[in-house]
Amino acid sequence: MASRFLITDPTSLWYLLILPAILLLYMVRSRYRRHRISSTMLWQSIRRDLESRQRLRLPPLSLLMLLEMMAVVVGTFALVRPALPAENREHLVILVDISSSMEATDVSPSRFALAQEQARQAIRRAKPGDLVSLVAMGPSPALAASGSDKTELLAALDHLQPGSGPADAIAALRLAESLIRSTGGRGEALLLSDGSFAPSVSIPRVDVPVAYSPIGVSADNQGITQLQVRPNLDGSGRWAAFARVASYADHPVQVRVTATADGLLVDSREVDLEAAASAELAFELPPDAKSFALALDGQDPLPADNQAEIQVGTGRPRKVLVVSNNAAPIQRVLQSLPELKVSTLKPADYVDEAGADVVVLDGFVPADLPRADLLIMNPPLGAPGLSTSPGASPVQVLRARAGDPLIDSVDLQSLRLGQPVRIDPPDWARSVVEGAVGPLILEGERAGRRIVLFDFDWSLYDLPKMQAFPLLLSNAMARLDPGSLPASIAPGETVLIRPMADSMAATVLLPDGARMEIDLRDGAQSFGETRQVGRYTVTWRGPRLGTVSRSFDVNVSSELVSNLQPGEISFQQGALPREASAPVAGLQLWPYFALAMLGLLCIEWAYFSRRG
Amino acid sequence: MFERLFRNRSRDGSAPRQARPSRHPEGGQLDEGLLGKLRNVTLVSQRRLTAGITGEHPSPRRSNALEFDDYRNYAPGDDLRRVDWNAYLRLGQLIVKLADAPERVALHILLDTSGSMAWGHPDKFSYARGLAAALAYVALSHMDSPSLLVLRDQECTRWSRQSSSSPAAMVRDISSLRPGGSTNLDAALAAFSTLGIQRGVAVLISDLLSPSGYQSGLERLSRMPLRPVVIQLLSPEELNPPLEGDVELVDSETGDAVQVSIDRAVLRRYRRRLQEWLEGIEVFCSRRGITYLRVETTQSMERLLLERLRREKVLR
Asked: Which residue ranges form the domains of chain A, and what is each CATH number?
């Protein structure tokens, strides 16, 4: 019987324990219904033969009890989800390449459209009962659909879109292996790709049959394969852009390259490219340029790689100026943080922020605050702009704002802090951590500056030797610049968007003008809707923050993408062991059991109603 | 309910009053049609003489009955229906037929009025009242003398006076009866046996569901110089109880309760016990010459009176 049908959820057999419960209920004597009759004379005479006085009795064989027990048995069989085994069931895993190179139009209408059509035909050819899995093969291959329902599979196929970064073929093939292995080892993988990933990877042995025929016919493509901006090393403060333009045609070509900065034309030139060759280009950017764009005017099968854009100035290290008589411990911590360029200065030598993005004022507060974001540590008595008074040492942490990023991962309970000077919280600040005599950590905005204030002497009680010290400094730096974004990423890559000040949400403007809201109440969120090539703008808004916008670019700048030469791949194919002990469920039987249970319940209800 | 039910000749020969049809629930229906048929039946007197010898004896009195054994000359005032017209045609002389005067049959209706009789669908007491009324009608239709005796508790009480019995009075007497209490059949029948009744037919209408039993009472009845007839009434619910599950059965007479868990096996046991009890009554009556009929209250009164009682020669 076990081989005749499969039980998908055997744990539901526990519901059969309801049967003895029903028996027990019928065995336990219920309350007697009073009934008047003409004479109990005859009943008295037979009562001696009856064991009506006993609390328990053999369960009476009644139709109602039988119906109830049958309903439980049938219902349990429905819950265990029996199914007929699917004999000789094949599993086809279709790997559809969704990288940007699949947008090439060397085949009509495009390589991706052709791959979609081949996938449709494969789905339609599948036998009833066969399993088909659809995998979107991008930088992170993902299962898009799986099952025997062709309608669902075709709908999932229609939702796939090309334009992501280079496909991770190895991960996709390993995924196909695991899918086929999970269903008994009978099946094959169908790789629908142009093989553009082939030159960069070595395909290992694959233990499933792989059917592959490269899609695409032409490599006649030119594209921007690299773009970056760097500050000039001459100390002028100006930036320069560097690009690589490649041609994969088998003949020399000439392309016009147009460079713009902030939308204004910077340069336009003809570039001669030899067959299968590239050219390095450099462009001087105007002062204070915020963005740089490059475009090729060639007519080739893949327009997506003919333009690229990049922000100027983002992604560069933030300048941090530490003003302290004891800067070494602070400098040591800050220099270990990425994207920070740290310089130090003694308070006596301080003049201004010297172009720093963040100024750390340790035991020193100038009369004119620097025009930068500030980390004020250990403010002195009588610090300008702050209401100060003598404090106390040591102080324990009494209260803290739960979940505040400034104290993220900091063990406040173990801290003993020295607070020789306490300040009254200014109007522009809010307390994050409080001690016995006043706030210990505050943060806020004032006159366009983000300010974090550590109202304690960090040099006391061995704080620099504790893990809390670098954590506090790192959290402060992140708080003072939460909006940092990468300058340029590839299609499909993710960007981490952090909350900023009192703004718990951010809006992302996509290249096509669409907007997406990102909820940041639970902290930083990964944003992965980066399939479109172009400029993405992230905007934070808050009552105190105001409006802050940052941008990043998605560019198809990759040789893997621009090289449209269809890749010939030979697979070393092994074989998965066919596991006979793992049958796959075919026709589901539970709906029939569920209907039968419903019928039994209806009969029981009718019988009970008639009986009254 | 029974007013003007009977149509009968009064003692002064005046026309009998029209009786309105009476309805009993379901089986105990008495309507005009049945009453008409009842006028054509009479009680059968199987008078006991001595030592249990039964049978009819000719009466020494002569009357103007249809059965005749002699003639005499017509005298003014004789019933013209008694004139032998064939003889007149032959002889040209009015001659009146003479015959044995049939003896008036004393009908004693013993009605069990215990609480158990007021039960069932149709209820037994309504049926019993209808049966008692029908038998009384038969008796009055043929100038027999019915008397109604009520069995209650340990007493047997005459509910109507035989000497002043009239159809209307009899109807009023019967319709005024109400069931209730408990009846000790043995004691009540023993009380009946002390009334000095020497002749007639005693019809006991009861369900015989007496906790004290029925044997000694019926034994006494069988030894009296009259013809005993026992009509046992039972309702469909007593024959096939529509009960299931855990029930507390309460006796309508005594109030005693018995808790029973009823299933099909228990019902089978009850029916077996019931059958044994009924067969015991039948055998008991048969051995003592008691005419015994078991009647379910769904049976039509007409069939009972005109078929079964005729078959048993209680009526003819």
From this structure: 6-84+589-611 (no CATH), 91-218+565-582 (3.40.50.410), 222-305 (2.60.40.3230), 318-480 (3.40.50.880), 488-554 (2.60.40)
CB-based contact B7:B35 (threshold 8 Å)? yes
Dihedral sign computed on CA atoms, order B215, B220, B221, B226: positive
b/e map of A480-509 (b: 16 or more CB within 10 Å)?
bbbbbbebbbbbbbebebbbbbebbbbebb
Partner-chain contact B252 A44, CB within 8 Å: no
Contact A391, A410 (CB under 8 A): no
Nearest CA in chain B to A60: B263
| B249 part of contact set with chain A, CB < 8 Å | yes
Cis peptide before B122 (omega within 30 of 0): yes
**Residue A90: pLDDT band by 50, 70, 90 thresholds?**
confident
Task: Answer yes or no: do B249 and A37 touch at CB < 8 A.
Answer: yes
- The percentage of chain B sitting over the pLDDT mark of 90, rounded to a whole number, equals 36
Comparing CA positions, the residue from A450, A448, A430 lying closest to residue A440 is A430
Contacts of B243 in chain A (CB under 8 A): 35
Q: Which of A295-304, B127-136, B267-276, B297-306 has the lowest mean pLDDT?
A: A295-304
pLDDT at A9: 86
Using the predicted structure, report yes or no on whether residue B74 has a pLDDT greater than 70: yes
The CATH class given to the B26-50+105-311 domain equals: alpha beta
The residue in chain B having the minimum alpha-carbon distance to the alpha carbon of residue A34 is B248
Confirm or reject contact between B264 and chain A (CB < 8 A). Answer: yes
Average pLDDT, rounded, for chain A = 84
Band (A446; pLDDT cuts 50, 70, 90): confident
Q: If pLDDT is split at 50, 70 and 90, which confidence band does A484 have?
A: low
Q: Which of B226, B247, B307 is nearest to A40 (CA)?
A: B247
